[in-house]
Prior knowledge:
Largest sheet: none
Number of strands: 0
Radius of gyration: 21 Å
Mean pLDDT: 84
Amino acid sequence: MTSFPLARRSALSRRTLVGLAAVAAVVCxxxxxxxSTRALEGVGMGxxxxxxxxxxxxxxxxxxxxxxxxxxxxxERPAVIGLILLAGLPHFLLFAWGAHLTSAALTGLLxxxxxxxxxxxxxxxxxxxxxxxxxxxxxxxxxxGVAASAALTGGAAGPGGIAVLLTAGLVWAAYTLGLARTxxxxxxxxxxxxxxxxxxxxxxxxxxxxxxxxxxxSIDLPAWGAYALLQGVGTGLLSTACYVVxxxxxxxxIPAAAGALSPVLTAFVAVPLLGEHVTPGLTVALVLIVxxxxxxxxxxxxxxxxxxx
Length: 309
């Protein structure tokens, strides 16, 4: 009798494992951004302080790239520069304001969750949005999730806070379009956004336009250190680097879809950490928006071409 050995299951390749580890890091880092922004009120830091730390750390770390980046900006179109700078202080302030008015769960859900929708709308305005049926269904799920978050999540400031978070998503979508058109490399983009944002944050904090403890001498060093680690290093540098590693090892679809898990992690971690609750309304919004974002990322970008008979 001839026996045939069963084929061994092939283990995951080293490249796949590296990519999956990078995706897991991205999900955790994006979640920590929403959680730490929502927790600002309880750590004795003003919004101005948070902005200074958030953008100051990457600006210092990437200072060797700044002179070269500033020279390259001379050849960049002003409109593109304006779109890129939206990702800095404007987006951060909207994100922090929306987190103050709502919750970490909604903040982590609505801002990244609505970016595909707003990118599509902005491209449609320019006449460049050709979508497959799968992506249209995915966008419909996102719209339904936004409607559910507005109708089913309570709080007196809920509608206003949701409007602020949607504006933050729109701003990030505009930045995404600018990023696709810029001649700057990724490090150059981070460097110029961080430099302009930290200078603007320092100026606004010094004039009292942004709440800040820096100019009153009452700095909580442990809070500043933790925030510098979470947002300056984590969000400002590591999340971008990990996302690049994930895309290079897994392709773009899987990291983009897996990024939709960040709102889920944020919602559940916010329960013990911030005392928030996962309500039925929030659950409905989570399911709709997260599934919509994941489906949008995995679906073909354009409708299939019609073949002539």
